[in-house]
């Protein structure tokens, strides 16, 4: 694992090998995630697509430096428009394929709306605040308070309390209730693959519907049966096959608007 110093502090990262001429994959983790919590998915995806893959932990996660807490209701915009561009520039990675999960999927869409990307794969994205999401966070808060989730997060993060409370408090705050990134998506012209499980405890396919309506560029959609909030872990083979097919589909390039 390597570390790079950014304006907001150090970030841990790793780059998996692949074709240097192909657009690199950039993986963006969920609200409680980090490099290690992707497990073997990045390596398998890089191998299947033949591309390099950047995997990193955002500030406050894993072994990266601390985050600025409490988070602003616009924290995902800040990650998309300030932190991620700086990281990619420092590493010399241009026009990436963004692969985001949950919060990371929202960050991917926001980044793609304002910066050049080759494509975006968004798994279980949040476009707005849904009642199911808030109920799921309340369940997670109870699991953290009772111990199991706190113990699990301690395996992956230097400060599991800051990770959990920094994420849950902003989502459950009154200021966040009107958060909605739908209007931002008008700037996304790159191809987008939307992925959602039918048993996702943090969101419904209403987010995919909203994304399809708002995105002006080519869109593909994958709904997975008997799958919860982590398609890349629960249905790994299906997700990898779908991403590979999506990235080599010549029709997407023809549909992409200049």
Automatic annotation (TrEMBL):
Q: Which Pfam families match?
A: Abhydrolase_6
Supply the alphabetized keyword list.
Answer: Hydrolase
An example Gene Ontology molecular-function term: hydrolase activity
Domain AB hydrolase-1 as annotated: residue spans: 25-242
- The answer on whether this UniProt entry bears the keyword Cell inner membrane reads no
Q: Name the chain's protein.
A: Alpha/beta hydrolase
Provenance organism: Streptomyces blastmyceticus
């Amino acid at each position: 694992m390597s570390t790079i110093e950014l304006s907001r502090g150090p970030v841990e990262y790793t780059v998996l090998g692949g074709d240097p001429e192909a657009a690199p994959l950039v993986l963006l983790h969920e609200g409680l995630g980090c490099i290690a919590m992707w497990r073997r998915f990045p390596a398998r995806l890089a191998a299947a697509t033949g591309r390099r893959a950047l995997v990193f932990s955002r500030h406050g996660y894993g072994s990266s430096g601390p985050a600025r807490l409490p988070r602003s209701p616009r924290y995902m915009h800040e990650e998309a428009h300030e932190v991620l561009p700086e990281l990619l520039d420092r590493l010399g990675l241009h026009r990436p394929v963004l692969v985001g999960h949950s919060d990371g999927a929202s960050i991917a869409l926001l980044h793609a709306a304002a910066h050049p990307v080759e494509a975006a794969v968004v798994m279980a994205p949040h476009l707005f605040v849904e009642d199911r999401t808030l109920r799921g966070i309340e369940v997670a808060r109870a699991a953290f308070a009772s111990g199991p989730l706190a113990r699990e997060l301690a395996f992956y993060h230097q400060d599991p309390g800051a990770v959990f409370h920094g994420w849950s408090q902003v989502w459950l705050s009154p200021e966040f209730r009107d958060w909605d990134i739908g209007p931002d998506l008008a700037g996304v012209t790159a191809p987008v693959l939307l992925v959602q499980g039918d048993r996702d405890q943090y969101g419904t396919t209403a987010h995919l519907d909203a994304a399809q309506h708002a995105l002006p560029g080519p869109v593909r959609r994958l709904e997975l049966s008997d799958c919860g909030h982590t398609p890349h872990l629960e249905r790994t083979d299906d997700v990898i096959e779908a991403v590979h097919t999506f990235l080599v589909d010549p029709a997407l390039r023809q549909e992409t608007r200049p």
